[in-house]
Design brief:
single chain; 39% helix; binds ligand F0G; five-stranded mixed sheet; three-stranded antiparallel sheet; alpha/beta; Aspartate Aminotransferase, domain 2; 2 domains
Length: 461
């Protein structure tokens, strides 16, 4: 088992958790249609549904909340946030939004033309949805290793330039005008790209005039892996690495609810040469989000984010965070539970297809496994497989992603080592009687982003 790394902070405020009985949890999951998104948080003991907006803020961030300038226009907190974006990320211009998908909406509506190809290092649910709503066609250009849970490759977030070249050959440069590259690739299991890959992609795209826009939602966690694994950057600070990653792009969007260390917020940011995109997004933000100096965030939210962006650049914090994930990963791995390897940056991902290998993928093994983990131990996790991937808009068929995963997403600065041990014990117990677990069928399937509100029933008999 990996040695644990103590957190560089202590607990000042606590929030009670309530353990429930198995009977209660069984009735809750049935009422929720076997969808962990539809459970009430009061019925959850340890909440590993997501790392999005679920973290704990520091005392300095809370102090910043009291310094909120709730002016409709020109709040001082907006300027503090602009300074933090410039200082930590290097971007010159910023458009605030209420969260990540607000930024994605503005970005794709303003950038894409109908029929444009949108190559990304794997899809993310809301990102692909907004690209498609704006007339784009998503294409995956991540390295093959990313689709293989068992592969130990250390840079599963890398872009495969051969795949990008093939898209250019097929569709022509006039339809491949941008690519999106995300650090700590969420759907691949929190897998990083290397800085050398980002630099190669940058050189390739510059030569052809293709823009690179990054989804920097989990950029600090990726920077930690670069510092740890890419020898050239071992002596660089996290902030220097973050700036170097951003320097490989033209602009970005961020769901600040992750590595911004806040409960709500997001933004778009651009370098100076992207003035046209900046102006377009700034014009549109007032229609959908709020004035261009708050974009849906309160003044206090912008202040907390300005502090969070600086706080997340702390290597000791990142080492403890990834260390906690590795502890959970190590305990499950030792017991033989099939996982995505190596351990990622924001969660531990269970290979549900291998865990429930008696089920067909259209019996939604990851959906059922997440439900059963909840019934077993009160731990809430999330399906990241067939249900999340949705249907192909052209054929109407399930997309059948190669990764059929349950994500145990660890909120930042919230849970302790004992919570991780408890989580592991429940899943290991479940693994011992995995053969008795049946599959699921839909009783209600929403048309878009179906995983949020879908309902299921077990296939029995
Ligand atoms: N991009 C990535 C990589 C994300 O992980 C998310 C959200 C978004 C964009 C959208 O941002 O939620 O602020 O609107 N991920 C959450 C998750 C929902 O649970 O992984 P948002």
């Amino acid at each position: 088992m990996p040695r644990c790394i103590p957190e560089p902070y202590k607990i000042k405020v606590v929030e009670p958790l309530r353990m429930t009985t198995r009977e209660h949890r069984q009735s809750c999951i049935e009422a929720a249609g076997y969808n962990t998104f539809l459970l009430d948080s009061k019925d959850v003991f340890i909440d590993l549904l997501t790392d999005s907006g679920t973290g704990a803020m520091s005392d300095v961030q809370w102090a910043g909340m009291m310094r909120g300038d709730e002016a409709y226009a020109g709040s001082r907190n907006f300027y503090n946030l602009c300074d933090a974006v410039r200082d930590v990320l290097g971007y010159d211009m910023m458009v605030p939004t209420h969260q990540g998908r607000g930024a994605e909406h503005l970005f794709f509506q303003n950038f894409l033309r109908k029929g444009d190809i949108v190559p990304m290092n794997m899809y993310f649910t809301t990102t692909r949805q907004h690209a498609e709503l704006a007339g784009g066609i998503f294409k995956d250009i991540i390295v093959d290793e990313a689709h293989d849970p068992a592969s130990r490759f250390e840079w599963k977030g890398n872009v495969d330039l051969g795949k990008l070249q093939a898209l250019i050959d097929e569709y022509g440069l006039e339809r491949v005008r941008m690519i999106s590259m995300a650090p700590d690739v969420n759907m691949a299991g929190g897998q990083p790209f290397s800085l050398s890959n980002a630099k190669e992609v940058h050189a390739f795209c510059r030569k052809l005039g293709i823009k690179i826009y990054m989804d920097i939602t989990r950029i600090a966690e990726n920077a930690f892996f670069i510092k740890e694994r890419e020898q050239e950057y071992a002596e660089w600070s996290i902030k220097e690495i973050i700036r170097e990653i951003c320097a490989q792009s033209d602009g970005c969007w961020m769901s600040a609810k992750k590595d911004g260390l806040v409960n709500i917020g997001g933004f778009l940011a651009f370098f100076k040469h992207e003035d046209e995109m900046f102006q377009k997004c700034r014009s549109m933000v007032v229609v959908y989000e709020g004035l261009h100096t708050y974009g849906g965030m309160a003044g206090r939210d912008m202040e907390a984010l300005a502090v969070g962006l600086r706080e997340v650049c702390n290597n000791d914090y990142l080492a403890a965070r990834v260390g906690q994930l590795r502890l959970l990963h190590g305990m499950l791995d030792e017991a033989g539970v099939p996982l995505v390897h190596p351990c990622g940056g924001h969660g531990v991902f269970v290979d549900a297809r291998a865990f429930l290998d008696h089920l067909d993928q259209d019996e939604f093994p990851a959906q059922m496994l997440a439900a059963q983990i909840y019934v077993e131990s009160g731990v809430r996790s999330m399906e990241r497989g067939n249900v999340s991937a949705g249907r192909d808009p052209e054929t109407g068929e399930n997309r059948h992603p190669r990764l059929e995963l349950v994500r145990l997403t660890v909120p930042r600065r919230v849970y302790t080592q004992t919570h991780m041990e408890f989580t592991a014990e429940g899943i290991i117990e479940l693994y011992k009687r995995r053969e008795s677990i049946p599959g699921l069928r839909f009783t209600y399937e929403p048309e878009t982003l179906r995983f949020f509100q879908a309902r299921f029933e077990p296939i029995t008999g």
